[in-house]
Amino acid sequence: YKENTNSIKNSPSIKFLERIIKTSSIINVHDPIIKQINFPYKLHYYSSINSLILKSDIILILTPWNEFKVLNQSKNFNILRNKFVIDPFGIINNKNSLKISTYYKLGIKYV
User: How far apart are CA 3 and CA 12, in angstroms?
Assistant: First the structure.
């Protein structure tokens, strides 16, 4: 929700969730520190980024946690290959993003 902290106060991710939840039926989330939040809608929490990706069609990396850099490891590209990924912080490097079917980073679209 916010990098390197267990606080969700003024978190842009929470504001985003509040808006998107009204149009989506299932929201899967992963945060390395926050395991549950008091949120008026049901969220499905996953203990690892890989388990979340396996259960999701669209991946939004809304916080630049160092843990998410494991997505640059080649073993993770099989699970990302057919996903739609929005990565505004550029956690996934440019060379690897070309292996994902649809990938957006702030200001750049790779298809």
Answer: 11
What gap in Å lies between CA 100 and CA 73, rounded to an integer? 13
DSSP state of 63: S
66 to each of 10, 50, 61, how far by Cα in Å?
Answer: 21, 14, 11
What is the spatial distance between Cα 13 and Cα 2, in angstroms, rounded to a whole number? 8
| pTM of the predicted structure, to 2 decimals | 0.72
In this structure, what DSSP letter does residue 11 have?
-
What pLDDT is recorded for position 1? 43
Torsion sign across C-alpha atoms 99, 96, 67, 78: positive
Q: What is the mean pLDDT of each run of 10 residues along the chain (111 residues)?
A: 58 68 74 74 83 89 85 79 86 75 74 55
